[in-house]
Specification:
single chain; 331 residues; four-stranded antiparallel beta sheet; 28 strands; 2% helix; 52% strand
């Protein structure tokens, strides 16, 4: 490869030897980590210490997100909870059971309140192929996306299996939802009508889609899952059809996470084999394979701003080996 793989700037070790499933930056100086023991750890990026631990439940925390004033957690057993940030601690305000058996992560979508579809919301998986959109503050259901509707496209859809990943995307000043399913199908949902606009079979029927990201600037997206391929796709702005563009082959099967960095210079994948693979977003060529982790990579996140200690945007990665690696990648 043209560039030598960098070393992590720091590695955080779990104080209670727990594994990690999920990460999120609250600010550039505060990193939250969801553990397999049902807790969320708060890490201070100035001291590199865990300064607070929230006990959520007994089930592994498969996803975490932070709004301006609240923490949202998702447990493997299906509960999604909203914790209000007070002066001294997080206090549980709302919770909902998703009835979802699987590993699809919720998403917090905090777009400006232009209309109902774009108001702050929490998007959660439901049983089967269904997706529910909740009010981001009250957790009341606003919308249900179901493939059992009476629309023409719904009636022609193949068996989808469980919903595995989804992502809100802004197209022509309107918010849509991309959703990947157990059967390898990717669907673009219209949130104004609750109907699918288009769908494409990106993988074989036994290739589960588990990771998804999209860049509206270049109109390219990436998805991956249980296969040894990362698939590049785009969306036709006129027909709203999803088009498969190309593939990137990786050495070992399985991708848990795909993340495009905000500056659109690189994207990274977190693999079942514990490897972080870094690619150029412009050329799609591989830049580095990072081998710091000794177990499955479960999550990858980027800080929105530069972390003070390293004067750079930091990528954090975590997984089953109980450590969080911090990287300054090609800034």
């Amino acid at each position: 490869m043209a560039l030598l793989p960098p070393d992590p700037v720091y590695c955080l070790k779990s104080p209670d030897l727990s594994s990690y499933n999920s990460l999120c930056f609250h600010t550039a100086e505060r990193l939250h980590a969801g553990t397999t023991k049902g807790t969320v750890q708060l890490w201070d990026m100035q001291t590199n210490r865990s300064s607070y631990q929230l006990s959520v439940g007994t089930s592994p925390i498969i996803n975490v997100a932070h709004t301006d004033d609240a923490l949202i957690t998702q447990e493997k057993e299906g509960y999604v909870k909203l914790w209000e940030l007070t002066n001294s601690a997080y206090v549980l305000r709302h919770e909902v059971c998703t009835d979802h058996v699987g590993f699809c992560r919720f998403l917090y979508h905090g777009s400006p309140q232009r209309d109902q579809a774009n108001a702050p919301s929490v998007i959660i998986p439901k049983s089967g192929s269904n997706i529910s959109i909740l009010c981001g503050r009250t957790f009341t259901e606003r919308q249900l996306l179901s493939v059992t509707g009476s629309g023409a496209i719904q009636s022609k859809l193949p068996p989808l299996g469980t919903v595995m990943c989804f992502l809100p995307v802004e197209l022509k000043s309107t918010t849509y939802l991309l959703a990947g399913y157990e059967s390898g199908v990717l669907i673009l949902w219209d949130l104004n009508t609750s109907k699918p606009l288009s769908q494409v079979q990106l993988g074989a029927s036994d290739e589960c889609l588990m990771a998804l990201d999209y860049d509206p600037v270049t109109n390219r997206g990436v998805c991956g899952g249980s296969s040894d391929r990362i698939i590049i796709f785009s969306i036709d702005r006129q027909s709203m059809g999803i088009c498969k563009k190309s593939e990137i082959c990786i050495k070992n099967k399985g991708v848990h996470r795909l993340r495009i960095r905000k500056d659109l210079k690189v994207f990274a994948s977190g693999g079942w084999d514990g490897r972080i693979r870094v690619f150029s977003w412009k050329s799609l060529r591989p830049l580095a394979v990072l081998t710091e982790h000794k177990g499955e990579l479960m999550d990858i996140v980027y800080s929105d701003e530069k972390v003070y200690m390293w004067k750079a945007v930091i990528m954090a990665a975590a997984g089953s080996d109980g450590q969080i690696s911090l990287w300054d990648l090609y800034n």
